[in-house]
Amino acid sequence: MSMPRKAPATSREINIRRVFAAPRAAVYAAWTDPQQLPLWWGPNGFTATVHAMDVRPGGTWRMTMHGPDGRDYSNHIIYEVVDAPARLVYRFEPEPGAEPVHCTFTVTFAERGAETLVHLKMAFPDAKAREDNARAYHSVDGGVQHLARLAQQLGETDAAPKPQLEFTRDFAAPLKTVFAAWSEAEVLRQWWGPRGFTCPVCEFDATPGGAVVIHMQGPDGRVYPMSATVAEIEPPLRMVWVTEPLNASGDPMFSGRIEMKFEAQGERTRVTIQIQNLWASAEGAPFLAGAQAGWASMLDRLVERFAG
Amino acid sequence: MKVETAQLDATFAALADPTRRAILARLARGEAAVTELQKPFAMSLPAISKHLKVLERARLITRGRDAQWRPCRLEAKPLAAAAGWIADYKRFWEESFDRLDEYLLTMTKEKKR
Q1: What domains appear along chain A, each with residue ranges and CATH number?
Q2: Which residue in chain B has the smallest CA separation from A188?
Q3: CA-CA distance, B70 to B84, in Å (whole number)?
Q4: Helix (H) or strand (E) holding A191
Q5: Which residues are CB-neighbours of B14 under 8 A, at least 6 positions away?
Q6: How far is B107 from chain A (nearest CA, A)?
Q7: Residues with Cβ < 8 Å from A98, sequence gap 6 or more?
């Protein structure tokens, strides 16, 4: 059965998710308590000062975010939906004298056993606005860092970046051809995955903040769904994805930041893949553990020695 | 490919700790007593015993029966399963790269024709 090959429908949105090893009430409180929020709010290097926070439909939230470069960002936000502890919708109001940001945030807090799945959806007026925002503010990485800081605030000691995995290969084709093979869904689906695997679904919006959906199918028929967001794209040199392998219910199990670099070597092209694992739910932890490079080689050596 | 997921979970959970990995690395050179395993670490005997219990439950090590001297021994099987997982990860990229390589070769040949 062939799947429709449409562009992802969420094109005016940026979606970032994370599973927290904390009860939902605690995660919701960290997001809505003016005492707790400044302790973790914003991407790495940011601090925040809350001036007012009236968490009710129609209520106002005023806050100044202080960037690592010393720049202040004044935020005027209006709550539209407050459904404690499950859902918040709030929109940014344009500030006089500041660059207008037209963005509505929907944050859902869902219970997953003892864990909490947070889905941060940023909706812009259109796809172009989403793309511009993602490019100018590195909103995808910013959102990922924002949620990582929340995890630390909630006591996850594991929230620090993990060791990287790296793979390199030289291809006998020019830079532009190789980059196209990575950034065009119709080409990507022809080679993505181990031998014998196919990609019944491969949708790819190759713009900053764009969505990627790949369903890989094994020779035994098992489907491995993955969603990703394009954090950075600089054709034909570099691309960064934040990936989320999904379980059968469509929830993310873990997340990795994959940076792909493309380098011309005469008529050939060198591709370097760097994988940084970001987080894992209890369900996804064994998958990630298996991908940890730090002790992988030691493990190989151990096994070589004793497998006989 | 079927792996015993629960066993794999236990293996990776046990391997997540640097002290336990160091203990396994030591045991890869041959069996050892608890007091001997304790030496390189600034840790009490009960703390080391706790780590050994985790490794034992994950079936990564076995302990000798001798009540006086209960040497710890490395068990290879769960480690082999864990390495299989890592190999899967490698395989994904290596084989994807192979397939891309083949695709690009076909493309260049078609162009030259």
Answers
A1: 13-159 (3.30.530.20), 164-293 (3.30.530.20)
A2: B100
A3: 30
A4: helix A185-191
A5: B20, B54, B55, B57, B58, B60
A6: 9
A7: A73, A74
List the domain range (segments joined by +) for residue B12.
Answer: 5-112
What is the number of other CB atoms lying within 10 angstroms of the CB of residue A68?
11
Strand-by-strand arrangement of the A268-280 sheet: A164-171, A268-280, A254-265, A238-245, A223-234, A211-217, A198-204
The model carries a pTM of: 0.76
Name the amino acid, one letter, at A97: G
> CA A15, CA A143: separation in Å to the nearest integer?
9
d(CA A94, CA A109): 27
Which has the closest alpha carbon to A90: A122, A116, A63?
A: A122
Which residues, listed in sequence order, are joined to residue A263 by a DSSP beta bridge?
A270
Q: Collect all residues with Cβ–Cβ distance below 8 Å to A177 and sequence separation of at least 6.
A: A269, B104, B107, B108
Q: List A residues 171-200 in contact with B (Cβ-Cβ < 8 A).
A: 171-173, 177-178, 181, 187, 190-195
State ipTM: 0.78
pLDDT confidence bin for B75, thresholds 50/70/90: confident
DSSP letters spanning A153-182: HTT-GGGSPPPEEEEEEEESS-HHHHHHHH
Q: Structure tokens of A145?
A: 């860092």
What is the CB neighbour count within 10 angstroms for residue A257? 20
Mind listing the pLDDT tens digit for each residue in A256-302?
Answer: 999 999 999 998 999 998 888 888 888 877 666 555 444 444 444 44
Residues A247, A254 contacting (CB under 8 angstroms) = no
The pLDDT of residue A93 is above 60: yes
CATH code at B95?
1.10.10.10
Mean pLDDT for chain A? 87
Domain count, chain B: 1
Residues of A in contact with B16 (CB under 8 A): 289
For residue A250, give the DSSP letter: S
Q: Could A307 and B74 be called an inter-chain contact, meaning their C-beta atoms sit closer than 8 Å? A: no
